Structure formats: C-alpha cells, structure tokens
Automatic annotation (TrEMBL):
It comes from the Bacteria. This is T9SS type B sorting domain-containing protein. Pfam families: CHU_C.
Length: 1093
C-alpha cells in the first residue's frame, strides 16, 4: 500500500497555478488592449482628422500616426487623442502603452476621404436683362455650395448676402464674389445686358416749307443704335426750349413723340426770325425716365432757290429749281437764257407751289447761262444763276486680247460709257477674218451682250490677230468715229514655280499652273526626289501642278503647257520658325496673350484661340461651338500676331493657340492644304489655385515650406491657424514660411480680385525635398537568346521623378542598394544586363544626405523559334493551308489575317508574326510555290526499227511558279527525262505526273514497224502480212506490195486485215516481196519481207 501526502499535493497545485498566472497575465492584458480610430473626412482642404480611443490601456498611451505607404516617419507622435490638419489618404495609427511593466501595442488603419467640393461657377447663369434698371442676376454654381454672395464692383454693388439672386440692377459689367464655409472665395465677372435701346438724339435741320411767314418747323431725330436686339418704346416726351434773338424770354414747347422701333423723326413749330441767328435746346425723356439732351441747336433761315439738273436719256438734262425757307406760291422769272430756251413749256410758269422743272426729252437743257429771279408769298426775293456746260463727247472703249495658244485666235471686248450699243460694223479686219466670219463690212451686232444694271458690251471671240476698224452706233442713234483696235498674237506666258513652306518643319511645297500639261524635275537637292522625276501624276484637271514634302534646295523644272516647253529654276525653302515668344497673363476675370511669332509660313496665316469644351474636344472660348476640322470665327477666336491681345474675357479652362497656314498639296484639285500647329497651351484659372506645399528642407517634420499657388499677381500669403487655433503669420507676397514647428497650419492665398484659396497642411506630411517614386519593371524579350539585352534606364526617369524639378535633383541608377545609398558606381543609361534589380537614387543637389531610393526589376523573357518549313508547294488553282506553331497567343500574317493558319492559292512569300504569353515576338517567312498540273501538248516518235525507237513527250507551258514533272511509259518506272529511247515497236501508255503529287495524265502511243516474214500456210499463225497497230495509230496509212520485178501485186489501208500471199486467189511463190508504206504524215517507208510456205 502507498500512502499519499494530500497536503503536499495541494500545496504543489497552488504553486503551479501561481506560476501560470505570472506567465499568462500580461498576455491576457495585452490581448484586451484595443485601439479604435474615428475618422473625420476632409471637407475643406487639409481639415481631415483622426480621433483615438483605447480600452484596457495602461496609465499612459502614445499614438504614432503614419501616412502610408511611409511607415517609418510618423506625421504625429504624442499622447494626444486626436490629430488634425490631415489631407486625404490612408493612415496607420499605432497605440503604445505599458501594462505591468510590459510594452503593449495595438494598431489600426484609417482612410480619410477627400470630400472637398471645389467652388466653380457655372457657365450658364440666370440673367434677366435690365430695361429700366430692373435687371436680375442669379448665381449658378457648377460645383460647391457658397454661404455668401457679394457684388464687389459694377454699376451698383451689393454687400455679402445668403441669397444667390441680386435684383434691381442697371446694365453693365459686375464683379461677383462667392465664399464657402471653408473660407475659399472665388470671383468672376458677368455682363448684364439690357433690352432698353441705345438712343442717339440729334437735330435734323429745318423744314423748307414754312407754316407761315413768322413760323418755322425744326426737325429732330432719335435713332436706336442696336435695332437688332432692342426696340424703342414710345411715347417719348420732347421739350423744345427756344431762345429768341437779342435775349428775349425763352419759349418752351412740349409734345409726345411716336415713331418706328428703330427710329423716329419729329418736328416742332417755333417762331421764325427771318435772317437772324438764334437757337433752341431739346430734352427727350423715355418711358423709363431716362433723359437725352441736344443743346444749342442753331436756327438761321433765309429764302433761297437751289439749281440742279435731272438726267434724261442719251446724256440730256433738265433744269430743276428748288425753293427753300419759303411760303408758296413762288414766282420764278428768267431774266437771261440761251437762245431757243422756252420756260413757258412748263405750263405753271412763272408761279410754282414748290420745285420747278424745265426741259424734257424733246427739249433738253441747252448749253449756256440761266439767270433768274424768285419771290415767295412773304415778299422775300433772291436772284440766281446757273451755267450749264455740255458733257464731253462719249468715246467707245474696246480692248483686244489673245490667250489661245492652240489656234492663236483672240477676242474683242468693248463698251460705250453710259450708253447701250445698237450696232457694230467691222469695216477693216486682218487676213483670215473673212474666212471665219464673212465678207467686209461685217455686221457684228449679234455679239452685243446686254448686261443687267450696266452698259451693254461687245464680246466677240475667235478673231485672227491683227488690226480692226469698227464703227459703233448707240441706242440714241449716235454714230461714232471709226475705232481702231488690235487683237495681239498669242503671247508666250511661261508659268513660274511658286514655293511655300510645308506643314512639317524643314520641308517645302511648290505649285506651277495653270494650263500645265507636263512637268519633269531635272535637278533636285540630294535626298529629295530621284531625277529625272516625272511629276505628271500631280497635275490636276485644271493643269495645276502641286507637290509637297520636298527637301529645301534648288530645283529645275521642265514645263510644258501644250504650246511650248521651257525650263524654270527656283529655290525652295523649308518651313522654319525664327522665333516664338508666347505668354499668358491673367487678370481679374480676363487674361492677356502676348503673341510674338516669326516664321516663313505666310500664306493664309492665322492664329486661333480655342478652349477645351469637353475632354479632347476644342471650340470657341465663349460660345462653346465645337471645332470640326475647319478653323474660323465660329469655333475659334482670332489673335493678332506681334502684339499683346488684351482683356480676353472667357471662362476658366484649358486653352490652346493654334497656328494655321496654307501649303500646296501633291496633285490636289484645290491646290493647297491646311497646316496647323499648336504653338502654346495653358490653363486659365479665374481665381486662386493652391497647387501644394513644398518643403525647403530635406524632411517635412519642421523647418521651412513654400506655398505654390497660381492666380492674378500679386498674391498675398497668410497663415491663419495652427492646430485649429487662431495663429497669424502675414507673409505679404512672399510664399515661403520659415522656422515653422511641427504642427497643422491653415494658409490663405488672396489675389487682388477678391479670390481666396485655403489650404490646411500638416508639417509632417509635407513631402521631402526629394523623392524617388516607384517605377514599373522593365520587361523585354531575349531576341537573340544570349541571356542579355540592352536597356535604356532613362526611360524610367519620368516615373521616378514624377514631376519633380530636375534642375534641383540628380537621378542616378545603381546595381546594388549599398551603391545607391552611398551614391557610388552609377550605371550607364544604356545598360546591357540579364535579369536583375536596379536601384534608383534621387539626390537634392548640393547635399549627400538628402536623397531617396526606389527599385525596379529587369525581367528578360524568352522568344520562341517557330517550327515551320521554309518552302511549301501547292497545286496550281488549289488551296494550301499554312499552319503556324500553336504555342502563341496572337498571330499576324502578311496577308492581314490574325488566325493561327491561313489558306493560300498564290505563290509568293508569306510572313507570320506571333506573340507569346510573355509578349515576345517570333517571326517566320516561308516561300510558297504553285506547281503546274501536267498537260501533254505533243508526243513525238521515231519508230520503224526493231529496238531503237524513241518517244519524246512535250507538256503545255503553265503560269505556275514551279513546273516539275516525271515521265513513265508503264506507270511503274518513272524518270525525270521526257525522252524514252531504245524502244521496241508496240503499244505504249505514256504517263506524265507532277512530282508533288498534284495530278497525272496519260496518252497511248504506238511505235510501228513491219513484219520480216509471214507464213500463209493455213495453220492460223502469221496468215497475213500487215503493219501492226496502224489501224489505231494511223488510220490513213496506205500499204503497196510489189514483186521483185516491181509489179504491183496489191494495196490496202491501215484497217485492212493485210495480204494473204495470193494474187487473184492464186498462191504466189515463197520468195521476197517489196513494199511501200505511205504514212499519215506523208512520209514513205520502203522495205522487203519474205513469204514462207
């Protein structure tokens, strides 16, 4: 039996439990220490914040806040339970506390979103034009929610208000400011129009007809200067204040004025002081109460009669006498006139109610002096004189020209000033005229052309060159002196090349025309066209030769116009820009463009300003009319070169300046093309834009910063808050703040227009002076399979610098981190290597310690080799499938096909480019041959022997690229040669086949000969003698058999069974017999054979 000490066991258990508590207590407490992070998103620039709370913490907690991906330098490191002044981004918060002497941490990630809404005015405001100072402006925002609206300048102003609508406004240009809850303010200008007309009031003289001898009517007028958009509203009130001569009391006359929508003419009767100077004032008041004044209008009037003439047909005149400042009737008496002038032909003479006219078509005004006396009903008298001088005689005008190089026939064009032509008689003409038109004198009246609204003209073509005499008669029956005129012979008109710069810098264009039929360039500068160069294909239907894309230099052209050929030499100058100085200067609500651009492109030169209406689409800065390919005032604003284009009032946005000019285009019917070049692009911001904060020290924890902002200068920089508390540093127009502690700051930037930009930034978040940003890996294919390739490391510059100013930063590449950190052993930019890691170092110039490092990999993928034959053969007229290797993801054949295989029927070279899954390219070029299908054209034989017969096979020619045949006479044994020799007589099947197995053909051939004996003895063997196979091979063959004395025994054709050895049914003796065979081709064969019994 074993006795157990129970008390000891209990004590041991307690000790074990105590030890476990010591070991696990801190762990349990650490597991219960938790961090919670609350986020306040960014609603104003830089006003994001984080709030922290923990559970089961020790006596104190420290919070480190990192702006990822930077997890080494915290933007905040203290025990505060919140951090403010944060911009949008992803943050890592690490809370640290001490529990029972152990350091315990908890961490959380938090995202601050950019919930800011920028203030942007809409381009479509609600404007109610003013009529009687009752205009309305309603501000419309494209983005943002202002708290206050204010009119800061204009015909009237308005203090800051919550409403977005301003009422009771006169027309004019207003400056309007909008401010949001962040303190950001933007300013713009709006032109408030008017429906009220712009009125011009003026005096319009005196009415010549008096109401009475002591009264006169003064005329005045009002004119609407904008009749298209506005109408005059009536009635106007007119007040005329007349000031009598000698200083008498003024007299006032009032009336209502009515008229048309665009103008009104109205009169006012006032006392008349004959022959004395006095004046009046006019006051006009419209329906809105607006007044218009015309002051100190002179009034002076005396009786007078004006003499003038009225035109009659054929150059004759009438005399017209017009009285003024009078009361009718007017007595007009002539005291001296030319002989034969009779004023009584006017039945009203001598008393008239107004104007008096003397003379008509039958009695025109005579040359001479006319003296007259006139007296009106008021007894006022005036004497007058008019001298009429006859106009100079009219002379025809006619011109001869000749532009006909083919037949050398010209034309005559002529007119008679102020007269119409009635008849044209040609009395003299050069040799050849009568052959073309008829005998002289020749009536050319059929060549008179009536011209509507102008004088008739003579237009006569097809005239031989030489001197002509022509007699004209006009429609007033006036016959003119014979007119001499010459039609010249065709004058050689040589076309001169006209050069223009091309659209591309360094190139030129040229034009020659019109009427050109052929052009050859015989001399050209090196590298240009190959001479002699036939340019006839670049001549259009009108005979204009144009050619572009030419190198500058001296060219010689041989030119033909159908009548002549000649040579012209000219120097072509390529397009070149001498200087280009373009800048934009912003102002309040407008901007200026300084445009000074010099080049040798002058034809059709224009400079156009366009705004980006929607992404990638440009158009008119004001109307938004889109540019669709042809520049003009509807979709662009013209700019003046070599000057400053002032006060361009257009919306904010992206702008570009496009230079447009004309150059010649090769063979184009229109002869020229439009060249366009974007000279300058810029962003116009109507307000203040804070681009960001830049550290002036290596790290942003503390030190100096620079605020980068754009707007109308001078900009004023002010820090207004620190960690959310009021804190002021007024920096004036200096954008650099120095000696700042690590904290969150709010800065405002104000422009002189009233715009305000606001930004809150945390010093710890300000980027370092220099950064090395991540770049993508460099990936290429090992083209030659040697495991290395050459890489351009500078292609990574843009990624690593990411817009940093390269004038202050040096970028180098290294093979190891140690080299990059020390700044030693930089790699060449053209670097040959296999797969590796490259370390990029950016260093702020002048400091070794202020640098940053990033890395990227060089990856070398392998290119495959395509397993295809070099040569392929296909039968003529049939398809062949070319199949590329299947281990690729895309294919491109030289035919344009993108499949793995293609079907071809034509011979030639075919190339396939394939890309594998690693984006490496493999290429293979194969040659395809089409083989001919055999066709026997002729079989030539040499036979009539026992063992030396010959068969020669000829085949048809083919368009196939390859023609390889084999030949056989038994279908079993084949040979390359087409001739078979050493053949015995008999029947043969001749075979021809393609060596690639496309097809075969055959033809039966017979080699003939004669038997040397026959035995007609009745045993059924060799009973007859004949030419074997002749009935098939040569059915027209004939055989003649003779005895040894030359006697003809018999004859038979190829279809006969042959000779049986008899003559007239009698057996002939056994002996030798002779034969003659006349073959189908006309040849004869002779021989002998034996008859055996």
């Amino acid at each position: 039996m074993k006795i157990v000490n129970v008390n000891y066991g209990i004590t041991l258990l307690k000790r074990v439990l105590f030890l476990l508590a010591l070991l696990t207590g801190p762990t349990l407490l650490a597991q219960n220490f938790t961090l919670s992070v609350a986020t306040t998103h960014e609603t104003c620039p830089g006003n994001g914040s984080l709030q922290f709370s923990v559970q089961n913490a020790g006596t104190s907690v420290n919070y480190k806040v990192y702006l990822l991906p930077n997890s080494t330098t915290p933007v905040s490191n203290n025990s505060n339970t919140s951090v403010s002044g944060l911009q949008d981004g992803t943050y890592l918060v690490v809370a640290t506390t001490i529990i029972d002497g152990n350091t315990v941490t908890s961490q959380q990630e938090a995202i601050i979103n950019d919930n800011t809404t920028p203030l942007i005015f809409s381009e479509e405001w609600q404007l109610t034009p003013s009529f009687c100072n009752d205009g309305v402006i309603t501000v419309v925002m494209q983005s943002g929610s202002p708290l206050l609206y204010e009119i800061t300048a204009g015909p009237s102003t308005a203090p800051a208000q919550a409403s977005d609508t301003f009422t009771g406004l006169p027309p004019g240009l207003y400056t309007i400011k909008a401010t949001d809850s962040c303190g950001t303010a933007i300013v713009t200008s709006q032109q408030l129009g008017t429906t009220a007309p712009t009125i011009l009031a003026m005096d319009a003289g005196l009415v010549g007809l008096l109401p009475a001898c002591d009264q006169i009517t003064v005329l005045n007028a009002i004119t609407n200067l904008d009749p298209v958009n506005t109408d005059i509203t009536y009635p106007f009130t007119a007040q005329v204040t007349m000031y009598p001569p000698g200083g008498g009391a003024p007299q006032v006359f009032t009336s209502d004025v009515y008229g048309l929508s665009d103008s009104a003419l109205f009169g006012q009767t006032i006392p008349f002081y004959y022959g004395q100077d006095y004046s009046y004032d006019l006051l006009l008041t419209d329906t809105c109460g607006t007044q218009f004044m015309v002051n100190d209008v002179d009034v002076y009037g005396v009786f007078g009669v004006a003499a003038t003439t009225v035109d009659l047909p054929c150059g004759f005149k009438q005399l017209k006498l017009v009285p003024g400042i009078y009361v009718p009737p007017v007595n007009i008496t002539f005291t001296s006139v030319p002989e034969d002038f009779d004023p009584t032909l006017n039945p009203s003479y001598p008393n008239f109610g107004g104007e008096a006219i003397f003379g008509d078509e039958d009695h025109p005004l005579l040359e001479g002096t006319y003296n007259y006396t006139a007296t009106d009903a008021c007894g006022n008298t005036v004497n007058g004189v008019y001298v009429h001088i006859a106009p100079p005689p009219v002379v025809p005008g006619i011109v001869g020209t000749n532009t006909d190089c083919d037949e050398n026939l010209g034309k005559l064009v002529g007119t008679i000033t102020s007269r119409d032509i009635a008849e044209v008689i040609i009395t003299e003409a050069p040799e050849g005229f009568e052959d073309l038109f008829g005998p002289l004198p020749y009536d050319g009246s059929s060549f008179i052309q009536p011209i509507e609204g102008d004088d008739d003209r003579l237009y006569m073509t097809g005239l031989p060159p030489g001197d002509y005499v022509i007699i004209f008669t006009d429609t007033c029956d006036e016959v003119y002196e014979p007119y001499e005129v010459t039609v010249p012979p065709y004058d050689v008109n040589q076309r001169t090349p006209r050069p223009r710069p091309d659209c591309q810098e360094g190139f030129a264009t040229v034009a020659i025309g019109s009427g050109v039929s052929a052009v050859t360039i015989t001399v050209a500068p090196p590298g240009s066209v190959t001479t002699p160069f036939d340019g006839s294909q670049y001549i259009d239907d009108e005979g204009n030769f144009t050619l572009d894309g030419l190198l500058p230099g001296t060219y010689t052209f041989e030119i033909s116009d159908g009548c002549q050929s000649y040579t012209k030499t000219t120097n072509l100058v390529g397009y070149a820009i001498t200087s280009s100085d373009i800048s934009m200067t912003p102002h309040c609500g407008a901007f200026d463009i300084s445009l000074y651009h010099v080049s040798n492109a002058l034809a059709g030169l224009n400079f156009w300003l366009q705004r980006e209406i929607t992404p990638g689409n440009w158009g008119h800065p004001a109307t938004g009319e889109l540019f669709t390919g042809s520049y003009g005032p509807l979709n662009s604003v013209g700019l003046t070169n070599n000057s400053i284009n002032y006060t361009l009032i257009y919306p904010p946005g992206n702008y570009r300046i496009v230079k447009v000019y004309r150059a010649f285009e090769s063979g184009d019917i229109a002869m020229d093309k439009t060249c366009e070049e974007i000279l300058y692009d810029f962003q116009y911001i109507d307000g203040v834009s804070i681009l960001g904060v830049q550290s002036l020290t290596c790290t942003g924890v503390s030190g100096d910063v620079q605020i980068n902002a754009i707007g109308v200068e001078p900009l004023i920089y002010t820090i207004t808050h620190k960690n959310g508390d009021p804190f002021t540093i007024a920096n004036g127009n200096n954008n650099a703040f120095t000696g700042l502690e690590s904290a969150a700051y709010t800065v405002t930037v104000d422009d002189p227009c009233g715009n305000t930009g606001v930004l809150t930034f945390n010093m710890a978040e300000v980027p370092s002076l220099v950064n090395a940003y991540n770049a993508p890996n460099l990936i290429t294919c090992d083209l030659d399979g040697d495991g290395t390739e050459t890489f351009n490391l500078s292609s990574q510059d843009a990624y690593i610098l990411n817009g940093q100013d390269t004038t202050n930063i040096t970028l180098t590449y290294h093979a190891s981190y140690a080299d990059a950190d020390s700044g030693v052993s930089p790699l060449p930019l053209s670097y040959t290597t296999g797969p590796t890691t490259i370390y990029a170092r950016t260093e702020y110039n002048g400091t070794m310690t202020c640098h940053d490092i990033s890395l990227f990999d060089i990856i070398l993928n392998q290119s495959g080799e395509m397993n295809m034959e070099d040569f392929y053969y296909t039968c003529d007229g049939t398809e062949l499938e070319l199949i590329a290797d299947p281990s690729y993801v895309s294919y491109l054949w030289s035919t344009g096909a993108t499949t793995q295989s293609i079907f071809v029927t034509e011979a030639g070279e075919y190339k396939v480019t394939a890309i594998n899954s690693q984006n490496c390219i493999s290429e293979k070029t194969v040659q395809v041959f089409t083989t001919a299908l055999p066709s026997i054209s002729q079989i030539t034989i040499q036979d009539w022997s026992e063992t030396e017969n010959v068969i020669n096979v000829a085949v048809e020619a083919s368009d196939a690229s390859v023609q390889n045949f084999e030949y056989s006479i038994d279908g079993i044994h084949w040979q390359d040669e087409n001739i078979f020799t050493g053949l015995e007589p008999g029947s043969y099947n001749v075979f021809v086949r393609d060596v690639y197995g496309c097809d075969w053909v055959s033809e039966k051939v017979f080699l003939l000969t004669y038997p040397k004996f026959f035995t007609p003895n009745g045993d059924g063997i060799n009973e007859t003698w004949r030419i074997k196979f002749a009935s098939v091979a040569e059915p027209d063959l004939m055989v003649y058999i003779y005895d040894r004395y030359g006697k003809l025994i018999t004859g038979f054709d190829a279809r006969s069974i042959g000779w049986d050895g008899t003559l007239n049914d009698t057996n002939l003796p056994a002996t030798d017999y002779w034969f003659v065979v006349r073959r189908q081709n006309g040849k004869e064969y002779r021989g002998h054979f034996s008859l055996l019994r």
